[in-house]
Write a structure and sequence with these properties.
The protein is built from 5 helices and 46 strands. The protein is mainly beta.
Length: 699
Amino acid sequence: MRLTPILVASLLGAAFAPAACGSSDESTFDPNAQDGGASSSSSSSGFVPGGGDGGGGDGSASGQDVDPASLRIDPADAVLTAAPGAAVTQAYKVLGKLKGSGNEIDLTSRFVFYVPDNYLVGTFPLNGGPTFTSRLPAVATDPPQRGGKLTVQATGSNSDGAVVVKTSLTVKLDAVLDSPNASPALPANPGSKFAGAADAGRAPTLAYPNNGVMLPPNLRRLDVQWRPGAGNDLFEISFVGPNGTVKYYSRCGGAGLVNGACGFELDQAGYAFVAETQRGAGPVKLKIRGGDDAGSGFGESAEFTVQFAENRVDGGLYYWTVTNPEAIMRFDFGAASGNPEPFVVKNQDGVPNTCPGCHALSRDGKKLVASLGGQQDGRLIYINDLAKPKTDPAWLTVIDKAGDDTAKLNRIQFASFNNDGSKFVAVYGDNATSGGNPKPVDLDPNKLWFHDGTTGLRVDSKQLAYKPNHPDWSPDGKMIAVTRVNGQGTTQKPTQGSIELLTFAGAALGNPVELVGHVVGKNRHNPNFVPDSSFLYFSESTCSGGANGGDCDADADPSAKTWAIKPQAGATPILLANASAPGVADNAATDLGDTFPRSAPFQTVHRGGKLFWYTVASRRAVGLTATAGAQHLWMFAVDPAKILAGQDGSFTGFYLPFQDLQTSNHIAQWTQKIVGGSQPPPPPPPPPPPPPPPPPPPR
């Protein structure tokens, strides 16, 4: 059973309660305020709290209380280095003075030791003994070995309560690994071929991952891609960070790359080695060195920085692909393994032989709405229970079929669910000239349509003075953002857009107010809220081919970039410049076609702040992979505190490695989980807290 934070806190409180009578005050001392030593001490086997490690008439602990202000852990702020598959240990002492005494003595026997935070790096014995041991996975399903920084906490008792002293410990994980598939075989001791000074004339060019990127620790895979440089056929790929160094030696490998490019994929095990060790630790330096088997010299690339988020990204991702047959794919980002699954597929499982797309998911992952046939069609597809198997006759709640006109009468193009999935809001601004008769009874394009979350059918509407598009219902349920269409085009391809906001007062939806106004030569479109509804993303395109041209119709505009704005009239839009920046392989191009920003459903803690994540469909170069300019899914981290302070809080992006890069992928809609999906096993629970420290000896 995984322990909840409340239960863990309760156990800790019980274990560390003072064992002697008196008040329950607890004194805690940070080692950074102490003059800690750096010496290491040997382990004492068979530790028993109060077992006499520090007692005696030679100045060691007697019946007096300890002086809390004098306490320190020795060694303070230690650094250990571990190798793959090997554990490291560190013995600790607590040193301090008795009240009324000027002599520092060994008080270890009166304390128990514990790791209160980063316990997957390592911990102390269950009896609270003073020897730390780094963790190794015991079975294949255990989390991988990792380095990291943790807190060493020692707790003792005075007659008036517990006393606690802390220090830090950094376990660095250093690994040197050879590529398992290198061809020809690598020379013995390949690292020796990179001795001496680098030759600038042989420098490789690092192309991917992007410099400055933030990556989830559970991304599973990462490609490193580069140009080899002159005369190089042996390569060192190094990740150097605060918590260790991982080096790979490889040849110029990689599949599906452009001519002359090299690639190396960190598989799930290799990626975890780096990411789990460096999660939340700050910038990690990535560099490629290229040489040869003879050791005749080497060059080295420019140094990129990458970061690994402190916490994983969870949720399910449903996206549309043009692979024949066209389909809505789904991928469980939070699962331990797996590949994208074709889910709603053209001409399969009761879906007509027409393209399904323009989909949306309820936030709990239980419901899906989509549109059939695209422009001028839009027949409703609705699934109100995604847990049902496709073999269930009721799997498709609403679908176009002979003798049933429900899908035709309730057409949509874009939609968004409310916070509890009981309703969704949709738009339909076309003429229903495709998909057959009948048409909806009401084809007024200037309405927001509200559909029931169980049946999928229209139940209400909101009349507007203009044609709305791209509705997005905020996660807190209080707002709906829309694109205001000021130009021409179908619902799928609106022009001259601006962004407006409608706010609920109780159950009543108010009239729209302008967030981002209409500007000649621009198209603002596709609003999407972040998880806490504090701001929203939108796309902006620049119309070089005319206000109603195909390069500015909110579909796959080459100039589209992502912006953010608070949901307040008069707020200032913020260009996410880092996210919009080109990669090395884009050759300084700035029109990368970032469209349909979609926010991941969770906010995560990172280095005392928060991170949000979002995806776009983009035409940017996928590193040095040959893709013929297709659209692919890219993902970006965002620091929301910076956005709310009026700054660019975005990081550079990465492409989602699980997608098929030989087809186009669009509109990655997030949900909190894949209903019926295979979730990863939870991490091991924290070790139980140590026994209570021994009471102070009697006076």
